[in-house]
Amino acid sequence: MREACFDYLSLGGVFSTGPVSLLSGLNPRPLSLVLHFFAVAVYGVGRLCLPFPSPSRVWIGARLISGASGIIFPIIKAEGVRQMFFPATVPAYYRAPPVKGDH
């Protein structure tokens, strides 16, 4: 996963600006975090299985996806599925107050 993350960031463009904006706090959207997290995992599986997949590489890829799911799903559960994926449906009194400078 570490190598996949490094190589994903090395692709540049949206593959590096997205995660960097999440880490720097410029992008507070949790859905973006989930999408980039799984993009790194899928990228890692693709690197493992291409061009010639073997049963052992497919098994390692499945373990990589399983490990990534074991990390992100508890975070999604703790934050709330509705709050993460459908924030507009959450009543205003449950939402965080807007950040200063946000209009």
Automatic annotation (TrEMBL):
Superkingdom per UniProt: Eukaryota
Membrane topology qualifier: Multi-pass membrane protein
UniProt-listed Enzyme Commission number(s): 1.14.14.17
InterPro entries reported in the protein's UniProt record: Squalene_epoxidase, Squalene_monox
Keyword Nucleotide-binding annotated: no
Domain Squalene epoxidase: 1-59
Coiled coil: none
Chief location bin: membrane
Keywords for the protein's UniProt record, in alphabetical order: FAD, Flavoprotein, Membrane, Monooxygenase, Oxidoreductase
Catalytic activity, as annotated: squalene + reduced [NADPH--hemoprotein reductase] + O2 = (S)-2,3-epoxysqualene + oxidized [NADPH--hemoprotein reductase] + H2O + H(+)
Protein location: Membrane
Any one of the GO CC terms: endoplasmic reticulum
GO molecular function terms attached to this record: flavin adenine dinucleotide binding; squalene monooxygenase activity
Keyword Membrane tagged: yes
Single GO BP term: sterol biosynthetic process
Cofactors (names): FAD
Role: Catalyzes the stereospecific oxidation of squalene to (S)-2,3-epoxysqualene, and is considered to be a rate-limiting enzyme in steroid biosynthesis.
Family affiliation: Belongs to the squalene monooxygenase family.
Protein name (Swiss-Prot/TrEMBL): Squalene monooxygenase
